[in-house]
Design goal:
By secondary structure, this protein is of the alpha/beta class. The protein contains nine helices and six strands. Helix content is 47%, strand content 13%. It has a six-stranded mixed β-sheet with strand order 3-2-1-4-6-5, with helices on both faces. The chain is globular.
Length: 237
């Protein structure tokens, strides 16, 4: 917990992610990343110099076998309100539209539903569980498949919605998130999406693992390049 708190606080401070009085919606997919984000933010609020409050929000895509009750219990223990917004995203993607490459559209629909739910709950900030490895992989995806140098931003202001999206775990490697989730016995709800683990991101993950056999600090070098260049939106305050 102390290592997670240290890295998260540094990221938050570097990019001025939290201001006094913020009411932050934490997007909870049920995976290890979002649950780790929620747990560490819940601990951080106890001593962070800028007081803030949290609300956890899950966008239920409509896969019937996914049970979010363990997450509801976690939120109860942490003293955080929990909202589940039911949708038919899964049905729209795989039954109505029969999408062969559904990930981009799914992400867009889930983000829209999450932002709507956040505003309805009185939140003007939304925290997402993207970590260090996500940033590196997204950069590589953009390079390979779009032919440009690009990545999501640590902080994004959505002017049409009046919402600020923050990513406080960008300094935390995935292996550390996995270890934390195991040690904390976080109630991970496995993704039942038919497209899970069959994406271009998985191809990039495999490539990076292969390259790391001879370039052990490859991810650190890529992430460092993103900040030192810096990419648009990655300038530190």
């Amino acid at each position: 917990m102390q290592k997670m708190l240290s890295l998260m606080r540094k990221c938050i401070d570097d990019y001025r992610m939290i201001e006094p009085g913020d009411h932050i919606a934490v997007g909870i997919s049920g995976g290890k990343d979002s649950l780790a984000l929620l747990t560490v933010l819940a601990e951080l609020r106890r001593f962070y110099p800028h007081p803030f409050t949290l609300t956890a929000i899950t966008i239920d895509a409509g896969y019937e076998a996914m049970d979010f009750s363990p997450i509801s219990e976690l939120c109860r223990r942490l003293g955080i309100p929990y909202i589940i917004r039911k949708t038919e995203i899964g049905k729209i993607l795989f039954e109505i539209r029969n999408e062969k490459n559904p990930c981009a559209l799914c992400a867009k629909m889930r983000r829209g539903a999450l932002n709507d739910a956040a505003l309805a709950a009185g939140c003007k900030k939304v925290a997402l569980g993207h970590h260090f490895d996500d940033a590196v992989e997204t950069f590589m995806l953009s390079l390979f498949y779009e032919g440009r140098l690009n990545c999501f931003y640590p902080v994004t202001f959505l002017d049409r919605r009046g919402i600020t999206v923050i990513r406080p775990m960008l300094y935390i490697p995935e292996r550390q998130v996995i270890n934390f989730a195991r040690r904390q016995e976080l109630p991970v709800v496995h993704n039942l999406c038919p497209a899970d683990k069959h994406t271009k991101r998985e191809e990039v993950k495999a490539l990076l693992r292969e390259l790391e056999h001879t370039h052990h600090d490859l991810r650190e070098r890529i992430f460092g390049a993103i900040q030192r260049y810096p990419l648009v939106g990655w300038e530190k305050e």
